[in-house]
Amino acid sequence: MTATKRDYDTIDLSDMAFWAKSADEREAVFARLRDERPVSWQRPITSPLMGEVNEGETGYWAVVRNEDIVTVSRNADVFSSGSGGVTFEDVPDEILEMATSILTMDSPRHGKVRRVISSTFTPKRIALIQDQIAEQARKIVDAIAPLGEVEFVSAVSARLPMWTISEMIGIPEDQREAVTDAANLMVSWDDEDVTGEMDAATAMLNGIVTLHGVCQDVIDARRAKPADDLMTALVQAEVDGVALTDDEIRSFFVLLCVAGNDTTKQTTTQTLRALTRFPDQRAYLAADFDERIDAAVDEFVRWATPVMTFRRTALERFELSGQVIEPGDKVVMFYSSGNRDDRVFPNPGAFDLARDNRNHVAFGGRGPHYCLGNHLAKTQLKAIFSELLTRLPDIRADGEPEYLTSTFINGIKRQRCVFTPQR
């Protein structure tokens, strides 16, 4: 770790009170940093996951401009994902060891494992997953259509992602609720509604242990009796003589449950709110859904930016926007800020479904760790909004949501919605 002493910025991004503010209030702070100090030195963060700040902890660099986020993401040989983890907070060692995945690997191991995982997504398997998602989305809307009003997160947003993951992996139906609960613990460890009386570290560890256990059962079952699902493909996959170990399969499953669950769930809810707030954009999309949905989905994810932060650790000296980053320095990328950068997005506070979104960073900064599941997320969003806007064309968010306070997920816990029932 660097021994360099620096003054902490007067704007404090490490205060949990900052993350309890609304997205608009946080954006006003990020806008000032983007204009004045795009790379700022921040005091160490404290959170329920970490407890007390580690002795000797010095702080981190906050990277808030889109261009700089892309630079850090693309220079993976300088900014490591495998040196201490990728979350804003320091994760306890026992959790970090169990949660290691392609997300927390550096080259060359990252490239080898990612290639093997990618090889399992054949055109035939992608087509099967797309059919599964379309059917799941239809059934979700079937269930709410006669009601006229529902709590949108539990009835719609939260259902599709874990249903998709469970079905494509081959999780037995009697274990799917446990998998969903464990995945929620992995992301919402700072939400008492999810963790109950458990402390944050215990909640996250319990989530990992549950997911590892369920996954290993499926691994063993598919080795004994292959099936037409992704787990069988992962167990059998081999590229250039490299196959996946059980540890790597379990870790990928954890990543899939975490990265593929709350991200799509939150984007779905945030998008319903945006379509309610910007009725002209709803009308624009509905007028030619099939032609406009591809571009619209990128605006869905830019607008929502469900994952707000990720961290890297510098391996060598690097200058970024006038600041000298030393080996061992932590660097935190603030994606929610990068996706509101008016240097890249004209009028970024507008929800514009015709916008050119090629440079959004909601799936990462287009480096080697660019989101492997981005096509899966887009397929889910297209499917659920096709069903919602076709069958319940006046569906809208009603009232204010209940937000999750988090440094990681831009989350909504509950949001009522109303619509004309479909008899």
Could you explain how this protein is built, in words?
It contains 18 helices and 14 strands. The protein has 423 residues and is of the alpha+beta class. The protein has a single domain, classed as Cytochrome p450 (Orthogonal Bundle). The strands form five sheets. It has a five-stranded mixed beta sheet. Strands 4-14-11 form a three-stranded antiparallel beta sheet. A two-stranded antiparallel ribbon has the order 5-6. The radius of gyration is 21 Å and the shape is globular.
Strand portion: 5-15%
The CATH level-2 architecture is identified as Orthogonal Bundle
Q: CATH homologous superfamily name?
A: Cytochrome P450
Classified by CATH, the class is Mainly Alpha
Mean pLDDT over the full residue set: 91
Q: First CA to last CA: what distance? A: 63 Å
Instruction: Identify the strand order in the major beta sheet.
Output: 1-2-10-7-3
Structural class: alpha+beta
Helix content: 40-55%
Question: What is the CATH third-level topology name?
Answer: Cytochrome p450
Largest sheet: 5 strands, mixed
Q: Domain count, please report it.
A: 1
Rg, nearest Å? 21 Å
Shape: globular
Number of helices: 18
Q: Report the count of strand segments.
A: 14
Q: Unreliable stretches, pLDDT < 50, 5 or more residues?
A: none
